[in-house]
Amino acid sequence: MKKYIFMVAVCILYAQVSAQNNGHTLSGEVLSTDRTPLPGATIFLENLHRGMVTDATGKFFLKSIPKGKYEAVVRFTGYKTQYITISVPSAKPISILLQEDDLVLNNVIVKGQSLTSAAIPESALTEKEIEITRGESLGESLAQLTGVSTLKTGSGVAKPVVHGLSGNRIVILNNDVKLEGQQWGTEHAPEIDPFIAKKIKVVKGAAAVKYGSEALGGVVIVEPPDLPTGAGLNSEINLIGMSNGRSFTGDVQLEGGFSTINGLGWRIQGSSKNAGDTHTPDYNLTNSGVKELNYSIGLGLKKPAYGIELYHSHFDTEVGILKITGLTGSLEDLRKVLESERPPIIEDFSYDIGNPRQQATHDLFKINGFFLTEFGRFNIQYGLQLNKRKEFDIRIGSLSDIPSMNLEITTHSLDLEWVHNPFGLLDGSIGLNGAYQDNINIPGTQRSNFIPNFNNYSTGIYLIEGIEKSFWELEAGVRYDTKFSDIRGWNLNESFYYDNFHFTNFTATLNTIYHIGKQDRIIVNVGSSWRPPNMAELYSFGKHQSAAGLEYGLLWFWDREAPPPANIYIRKFDQVAIENEQGFKWLNTYEHHGKKLNVDFSAYLHRINNYIFIRPEGVTKRPEGALPYFWYRQTDALFLGIDADTRYPLFSFLNWNVKLNYLWAKDVRNNDYLPFIPANQVETGFEFQQNQWGKIRDVYARFSAAYTARQKRAPRVISPEVITEAGEQDKNLFAEDPSNFDFLAAPLAYTLVNLDAGITVPTGKSNALQFRLGIRNLFNVSYRNYTNRLRYYADDEGRNFIVSLKFNISTFKN
Amino acid sequence: MNTNHILSHTSKIQFKLYGILFLVFGLIGFTGCDQTDPVPEEIPETVTTVKLTFTPSGGGSPVVAQAKDADGDGPGGPVVDEITLVAHTTYALSVELYNELLDPTDAGYNISDEVDNESDEHQFFFQVAPPALFDGSFQYNDQDTNGLPVGLKTTWVTGAAGSGTFRVILKHQPGLKSATSDVTVGESDVNQSFGITIP
A255, A430, A535, B146 — which has fewest CB within 10 A? Predict the structure, then answer.
């Protein structure tokens, strides 16, 4: 019987067509403001509890409606929801226009694919914010959003941090495909060319139901613009120069469509970057250059009822890591380097990148498609990613030319999704994700493998259902995941180890939106999440650039009593009490989008049990010198935070903006501070904006000042000297005080001032030239950032002048 | 209403879906069979052992002291011997470097050979505290192809009784080694301190 009722719900539309014959017929169409039909849009008559989905030509047709006035909700993903009143009978078919929704839209689901997940708050970079950071990395662009900061390694590497979490706790969607590389490394920047992006967004709430276990901390979404569907040609050229690092960045994009085949579009894009050594206000950061050469190609056919797209992107980078020689010297040298104002090697400016350096390439091949049926929309996507990473260290003799780490990871992923038509009140989707991963060490590094060879097999299935009423929305999601891993590696004493393990878990979220009038709403997002430890957290062994030291994973055990080298060995997974990370996040957001004042305010609580983190544990003396070492450990963590972003127009041409990032984190198991938690920040800015000034368009000037506080909630400091003494006397550093420590105190607070200005000059009917100027760190302040891993050794970057030029020619009719 | 029609349609779609699923996972499974086992790496660059042999010029048994860090990249520290020499005696010092994580027959086992092969890029430096432990300065007894000192072989003359530290530093100075390049130039390949006693 239940099944029967379910089927009735499935075919509600049929029932409506065939059931009764009394009443009137309602018909019409749903269009976008540019009069494009919108197939798959929903029209829901609230008081009748009846709904309808537009057909392939955007038309709808609803029979047997009693005479009366009806409140109707018209929705289509990517467009603003319309609330209209419809009178029945209606003399003629009605046309409903939906307005495209770029920034206010809360739909986290990839481009027009779902009607659900409206309830997880996200922040998007505005087009201008993307433009202003052209030439910088993705991580640096994202840091403009409240609640987002960066984990840096010098100037070349920046990873996004969302609400204090980064790396494998953040999913990065690159054109709808989950980026799979060696994300565990703090100095492994996301292998994404920010020039492909038209939209850059961050989902901060619990989004693990949709995106899988690694979305525990958040989701970064990088989306290229949709491929053209009409006839025409569009080209864009970007040229950016920066004084600090003397960098040149260029990007060319070309896209077009055909008049012969409607819906067929293509795009080709390429970018290159060449940056030399950057400098602090006082000295050069030797070997901090970056080189990049990237391209992407896309081809797609989009028809109202189906679509297919092919995409390939290639990312190729070489990044220098600051030269710090003292690290291979004695303990005194290490102490000197840590205490010194400056790094030990300062050379003249150069574009050359020497060791230590890293080379990474990332290739993505994607095919995806959708088709509309009377049951809703089906999305299919297959992605193949090939990620290669080589790291070169300063080594004896000719070994410097051999990578000390050489990894290749291949990932196949398949995502299936059914976005069903409304079942009565319910709107939702069911999805299936599958992925297979193969990680190999390319032999010949002549160094112990830092992580082993492994294969991962993972599948997940989810169901998200939502209800939307006029003033509130409710959405619930569940997900079931299973993951199998197979690991093969070598112990230090040349013995082979093999292990495999299996994880399964449930995840759930509940999101509600409550609208107060038309300008205010409250969003409450509650979700659980889990994350199994990744291979680096379990198996890391040896020297790694990011730590400028040695790193050991959770499974390594050091038996201080046993004779070396058998004193350090890997344990089987099931012999060690290692638990999955279990997260619970509660995020409350209040939004006011008034005619003048705009406020986004979020407060969150994030509890993560069995939180995995890396902490300094000591210094090991070796004939080559002394090195600090770090060990992965588990604890229970609590994150409490506030993000606020307000904007108020002082005059019609002048906006005032205040942003706040506040984060309070604690190791609750040990009643201690956690290392590497971003410091609190407050930023204020004024923006002058004039849309038209004679012939010149989009004139703007922006001034902002950001104050970054000292991280006062940082672990205690133990100097390398004290640590070595303890080592010599065979004393366990944690015997008396088990709390976390750091080698240096957290850096002092600092304020950075930035200036930006820009104009657009029309140079013809369909082309325009855009000039921008920027100054970062206007007052050339010397500072160190707590979440820059090179803060132990050097200051951050000094003043930077940016000049950029964008030229656009289009033959598309707008 | 016609539920049969709907059912058959649903199952058709399900069938199609399973078909696609089967195909793609089949493909993944196919490529997935390829599991590569890692190859154990030779780790030549790790200096686990610094061995000093002081041979008295007037004959007698040599004094051997070594520093050994048997766990390589592991967290454990080295075991370091104390150097005990006789006062007012001339010694020939030979420095040997080994990677004892390898077998003695392996190519990378004897690192001092490698230093010898690349002697134009390497130089040993020695720091003694207090300096009075030795009379005057030591002599380099070997030269690279450019006639510059290397330091695998040196000669020392002990002073009066005392105790202190004897530090051995091997600098890698590719393209930097010259008559004036000192201990501050280049990267340290070895930086090991020994305790020294002259009774």
Answer: B146
Mean pLDDT of B99-106: 83
Contact A376, A12 (CB under 8 A): no
How many Å lie between the alpha carbon of A676 and the closest alpha carbon of chain B? 22
The residue with greater pLDDT, A723 or B122, is: B122
Q: What proportion of chain B, given as a percentage, has pLDDT over 90?
A: 42
Residue of A nearest to B121 (CA): A397
**Closest to A771 (Cα-Cα) out of A700, A705, A703:** A700
Locate A186 and state its tokens.
Answer: 């703090």
Q: CB A7 to CB B6 under 8 A?
A: yes
Mutate to test the interface with B, among A7, A20, A396 (most CBs of B within 10 A): A396
* Mean pLDDT of the A434-456 span: 91
The yes/no answer to whether this complex scores an ipTM above 0.90 is no
> Nearest to residue A769, comparing CAs of A778, A758, A784?
A758
Within 8 A of A441 by CB-CB distance, chain B residues are: 38-39
Amino acid identity of residue A263, one-letter, is G
Alpha helices in A149-269 (DSSP H): 208-211
What SS3 class is residue A306? strand
Contact between A216 and A529 (Cβ < 8 Å): yes
pLDDT tens, A466-522? 888 888 889 999 999 999 999 998 877 667 889 998 988 899 999 999 989 888 999
Indicate the residue of A394, A448, A622 with minimum beta-carbon distance to B43.
A448
Least confident range of A162-166, A186-190, A808-812: A808-812
List of E strands, A169-289: 170-174, 177-178, 199-203, 218-223, 232-242, 247-257, 264-275
Q: B8: Cβ–Cβ under 8 A, 6 or more apart, which residues?
A: none
List the single residue in B38, B187, B191 with the smallest CB-CB distance to A394.
B187
Q: What is the pLDDT of residue A8?
A: 34
Identify any residues that bridge with A200 across adjacent strands, giving them in sequence order.
A222
A12 in Cβ contact with A44 (< 8 Å): no
- Per-residue confidence (pLDDT) for residue A5, from 0 to 100: 38
What is the distance in angstroms between the Cα of B180 and the nearest Cα belonging to chain A? Answer: 18
Check if the beta carbon of residue A403 is closer than 8 Å to that of residue A388. no
At A102 the pLDDT is: 45
pLDDT at A87: 78
Nearest-angstrom CA–CA distance, A128 and A123: 14
Closest Cβ–Cβ partner in B40, B48, B76 for A620: B76
> How far apart are the C-alpha atoms of A381 and A174, rounded to whole Å?
13
What is the rounded CA–CA span in Å between residue A243 and residue A775?
10
* B187 with A325: Cβ contact below 8 A: yes
> How many A×B Cβ pairs under 8 Å?
189
Per-residue confidence band for A119, with pLDDT thresholds at 50, 70 and 90: low
Q: Residues with Cβ < 8 Å from A694, sequence gap 6 or more?
A: none
| Distance (Å) from the alpha carbon of A111 to chain B's nearest alpha carbon | 22
Amino acid identity at A612: I
Q: Which residue has the tokens 């070309």?
A: A254
Query: What is the C-alpha separation between A602 and A120, in angstroms, rounded?
Result: 12
Q: Give dist(CA B55, CA A616) in Å, integer.
A: 43
Would you say the pTM of this structure is higher than 0.90?
Answer: no
Smallest Cα distance from B58 to chain A, Å = 31
Mean pLDDT score across all residues of chain A: 85
Task: Compute the distance between CA of residue B98 and CA of residue B102 in angstroms, rounded to an integer.
Answer: 9
Query: What is the rounded average pLDDT of the residues B39-59?
Result: 85
Tell me whether residues B46 and A624 touch, CB distance under 8 A: yes
Q: Which residues pair with B90 in a beta bridge?
A: B157
CA–CA gap between residue A506 and residue A140 (Å, rounded): 34
Looking at residue A743, its amino acid is F
Residue in B2, B34, B188 closest to A625 by CB: B188
What is the percent of chain A where pLDDT is above 90? Answer: 46
